[in-house]
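Why do we bother with a discrete structure alphabet at all? Because it lets us treat a fold like text: something you can write down, compare, and reason about line by line. To make this less abstract, here is a complete entry for Histidinol-phosphate aminotransferase. Read it the way you would read a sentence in a foreign language you are learning: slowly, and without expecting to understand everything at once.
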Amino acid sequence: MTDQLERLNRLPLRDNLRGLQPYGAPQPHVPVLLNVNGNTHGLPAKVHAAIVAAVGEAAAGLNRYPDREFSQLREALAGYLGHGLGPSNIWAANGSNEVLQQILQAFGGPGRRALSFPPTYSMYPLLASGTDTEYVTSPRAADFTLTAEAAGEAVRRTRANIVFLGSPNNPTGTALGLDVVEAVYEAGAASSAIVIVDEAYAEFARTGTPSALSLLPGRERLIVSRTMSKAFALAGARGGYLAAAPEITDALRLVRLPYHLSAVTQATALAALEHADALLANVEDIKGQRDRIVEELSALGLAPAPSDSNFVFFGGVKDPRVVWQGLLDAGVLIRDVGIPGHLRVTAGTEAETTAFLGRIRELV
Ligand code: PMP
């Protein structure tokens, strides 16, 4: 045991946090960073300029607390999402991680159970521990897909109070059919389950892949969570949000810290939303690189999963550790998510994607 761990264990830490590792992909200085699914394209110059101007203006009022209700931002997010949503349907926080945490603070906790379907986003169990919510899982099929039948059955069996559905799922990259969301929602009626569809990567979905936003009307236990970290290239600004029934946003007001969204964050997010078109043009470019990765990896005899996201999960890798290291030696960092025979790579700029493909061709 390291000294540091020993010192930590001497503290009166909560039992359910003992032995846990903090979330954290490495943040090394490597020329081609394709390991954390952020947006590899920088902000377009005019979006950057608009953010600088908006933040400058916000700075003049930093002696005052920000708008606690972030009304303008909720209005803008509702407009962006469409689907007949209004500001009362929208909630936002510092990244969708905080949105998810607030949902667990309001609807999870001791005696409550959250369910998910691994492999999935590694923060779900950590958010559950942090809120003393029991975390249970139910497996996917061997090809990592999830059927409506299997998902509904798992919800009934576990009597989950909260269900996380990653769609598109991280690390596998594929979106769920709406039939899965509907089945989970119906199965969750018996335990009044809050169903969270985590659509962090929704803007990268292939044409024809529907969003669960269309299912919101009439489903007061359904939440669709989104983020500005991926499509909007704002991971550094920390802005996530959700769409749900107004009573859900009222519930989250009970647990949020007052003024949790800084004036700087609100100004940044608003300026970016005003330039959604320019940012979504970059999304199209990233989707092109993503499709190129899927095609070229298939041609190399590897097995990429269908991707609705800005990353590709691929199988058929004989020794993932060797391939991962070989790429790193050439300055390309991707993610070994710990699933035998598989690796995950984020779609980069054209040059970054070329560097990745060139090197992996030599390695497999
Ligand atoms: N959900 C999923 C599935 C993710 O992959 C991520 C980011 N890795 C998030 C939520 C959280 O992103 P953020 O807090 O930056 O919005």
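What the structure line is telling us, in plain words: The mean pLDDT is 96. The radius of gyration is 21 Å.
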